[in-house]
Amino acid sequence: MRKIFLLTLVSLILVVFCFIGMQELSAEKPAKEKVGEPIKIGALFDYTGPVADLGPKFEAGLELALEEVGYEVAGRPIKLIIEDSATDVTVAFEKFKTLVERDKINICIGPLMGDAHLAIAPYAAENKVIVTSLFNGMYENIKYKTYIIYPTTVDAQTYPFGKYCYEKLGYRTMITIGANYAGKIGYANGAAKGFADAGGTVVQQLWPPVGNPDYSPYIGAFKTADVVLYALEGPGPVARFIYQYHQAGLKMPLVTITQDGDYTPESLAELGDIALGIPGQSSYTWQLDTPENKKFVEGITPKIGKLFPSGAEVKTYTLGKIVLAGLEKTKGDDSYEKLWPAIVSLKIKSADGPVSFTPDGVAITNMYITTAEKKGDNYVLSTPIDTVRIDPEFIEASRGWVPPK
Amino acid sequence: MTLPNERETSRRSGQSLLIRFTPFIAGALVLCILPALVPTYVRNIWTKFVVFALFASSYDLIYGHTGLLSLGHAAYFGAGGYTVAALMLHYNIDSLWVGLPLGVLVAAFISAIFGFMALRVSGMYFLLVTFAFGELLYSVTWNWKWLSTPGMQGISGLLRPNLGIPGFRWNTINFYYFVLIIFLLCFYLVYRIMNSPFGHALRGIRENEPRMQSLGYNTWLYKYLAFIITGAFAGVAGTLFAYYNRFISPTHVGVVTSFMPMIMVIIGGSGTLLGPVIGALIIVFVEYFSSLFTPERWPLILGALFVAAIMYARGGVGIHLTKLWRKLNYRYGSSKG
Amino acid sequence: MELVLANLVNGISFGMILFLIASGLSIVMGLMGIINLAHGALYMVGAYAGWTIAVQWKMNFALAVIVGGIAGALVGLLIERGFLRRLYKQPNEQVLLTFGFVYILSNLVIWIWGGHRRLQFTAPILYGSMEIAGMPFAKDRLAIIAIGAIIAIALWYLQDKTRIGAIVRAGMDDKEMTTGLGINLDFIFTVVFLFAAFIAGCAGVIGAQLIGAYSWLGTDILLYSLIVVVVGGLGSVQGSLLGGLVIGLIDTFGKALFPQFAMFTIYLAMIVILLVKPSGLLGRKS
Predict the structure, then answer these.
(1) A13 touches chain C (CB under 8 A)
(2) What subunits touch chain B, counting only 3 or more CB pairs under 8 A?
(3) With CB atoms counted within 10 Å of each terminal CB, which end of chain C scores lower, N or C?
(4) Percent of chain A at pLDDT exceeding 70
(5) Three-state SS for A282?
(6) Can you give the pTM of this predicted structure?
(7) Domain range for residue C14?
(8) Which residues of chain B have a pLDDT value below 50?
(9) CATH code of the domain containing C112
(10) Domain tally, chain C
(11) Which of A319, A324, A258 has the alpha carbon at shortest distance from A134?
């Protein structure tokens, strides 16, 4: 007993000594990268969880972009390190820390969820790692200046669609139902603001939790409006909602956002006819008639073995091309100080249209209105019914939404 | 000139001293020396191990010593972490001297409330209820906007604790030793509690509660106090975790995190002093290695390890190590001719 | 009015699913004295097996239900025979063991079927809604209520009117006495456990019409069923039925009326029961 006490005391003293001593000795600067050494690009995709089917699609798009340049840029080989974010903020954050501390990446593609980005941002800024969004670019992260927000902030993406619902589709009142996390809340509220700014009224907003298995209580709580806008986590939940909405037999028309991300060949095949005719905002459709898109579709279709690429593949493809173009500009220097200004000064054309950036790192892209259609025996995403350029001033105009009631 | 017998004796005492101190030397090596020499990333894993060693050791008080299977213990762990995080988020208070005590208080308070209701039922029901309370707190941290950085679930951007020492800057090395010091202090406290009359009474309750009652013990009070103490120490671990992880989320309050101290205690050996610590070491480092080779299969490995430990390593690794040490001590440690 | 009726149907159908799982959990708990935390995982395994039959191989839905039940029973057999029996008279270890299996099964399910979530599926005749008195009702929900009621009656008959039911009830009340009467309680334990696992597996497929299948379904449904057991009370079909319906209705109406407090309504119910009648509404033991 006496011995243990003594020993504990001694160890404590030892430890305190180490504590004070080590303070001066520690120098934690990472080693400078040498030319010729591989550029490490990290990626956080979703392989398990509610949107697990997106992971392989993201991977395919990014790989295609890297294959096109033979995994090499400015004389340096590229090493791609992918981790599973499990669509969970905690997991994504831990994996991100692993990528930065163990693998020493300087740039990371993804993760998907907006809240994961909010969690990662302070840490990424501290460690000077450039992070890109996949679908959900969070406005709050602009201030860190380490964020490539593409296609644009969530609110700005759907703001023009809200206007479209009022001006072109003629709806006057709207109900929104959105998954209760930062990304989809942003999307739903951006559209709501656009709708309201154009003159419409949002009568009700519902927020089922992420991973909610059963939408019927929410469907049962719907009031009456001209249109219902849904903004749910991904292909699985969207398909489930459309199915249950149909089962409930309600008559209000549906519209949606991020349709290119939510309509995958698998989910459309499962839904069949009930998916037809729902107009939605997309940042891409495989039926875009441009040479860049034709090249992309040709390259990606054998990789994914499916009928058509959805928004997932093209996002990482374009992001890959953006990163590669930036690295070309810096002649292979992937340090934050050189790469960031190079990327935000880019102007490129990718499969989903022309891309340029604001000085803060927000991309300026096109928005397309699409729907699901039947081509022969298959259900696919349609050609654009309409195209709208997302004006940088939408970034501010879409903020500040005040919920009803 | 020494007689052969005397030489024999002095050699044996030299050996016995070495054997006696081996665990402590090993412990000092693992805890104090090695972490300073490894790469940053591994050192962070080490820090995580120490935090969870504290969590597991405190959990053993209620499980190993009192015999109560509490299934929602991350609630108190997370409560400590969230306290510190909320202080930083809403009041810009990052001082250790405010954060840590308040974290412990909040954790103890919540365990007092939950424990009171849970102890109204016994056996399997107790387990159910502690599980449900853990999930209740999970729901609270998920839905109550005040407990989240705006726009997401959980609180991010947490800072290292402010010690109030001017010019002091944190790095991974001194942060590790900081966590280690707090762990050793708490560990010592837990050790004292386990060996006190209170601890003996707890073990008596685990063995045969009716008999303790007939001896005049207010067993309910003892169980309740043990529950609160465990909750308080879990709160310490939680605040350390918040400082370490820089991010706290509802996951850290939920069933997956509750499972961690349980499996560490089972694998390391419940009811022993070092068991939970060894269990924490094993789990954290197996997780690290699994993340290098088969990250998707980690839950499978964890579950399989757990099942194997329950079925075959009764008493956990800790018991086996203790037995081994005793055997060695007996064989070589005796300094009598 | 329409709203209330729609939510009533939703609540009762969800409650039926909860009843199916909770009944198995409760009987096992009452008889064997352990909580099978893997019970939710058995439900999940059944759901995935049913999905393979009904969606992947496009076969009969009723067949899918049976196959789901068999899958649940097989996994249950493995857990009980291979592991639980060896931990004789160690309830804490048994509970922990079942929890380990939740992890294993959740990950196995991802390994075999892939990580993405499965959409709800149902029999083709149950697709869509039907009109009753001018209001639309989802056909699959009505079917769930009907099936649940039939199973409830069958289980109640088994429990109260058959010899085996009497044996099980006797075993719950007094193990030693029952064994003393020459009844092989060990064998009964295994049979009951398997039967509960079979029902859980079937419930998985039946419930998949509302919930689909995903890899952490095991823990999600476990939480619900644990609360149902606390509220309804241990060891009887009636308790599980009442608990299931109460929780199903509270949860559904809670989500419809107070969406922000969606999850809390059921915890509130549990806390009230704990404070007022800890053995549950229809609990056998106090």
Answers:
(1) no
(2) A, C
(3) N
(4) 90
(5) strand
(6) 0.82
(7) 2-276
(8) 335-337
(9) 1.10.3470
(10) 1
(11) A319
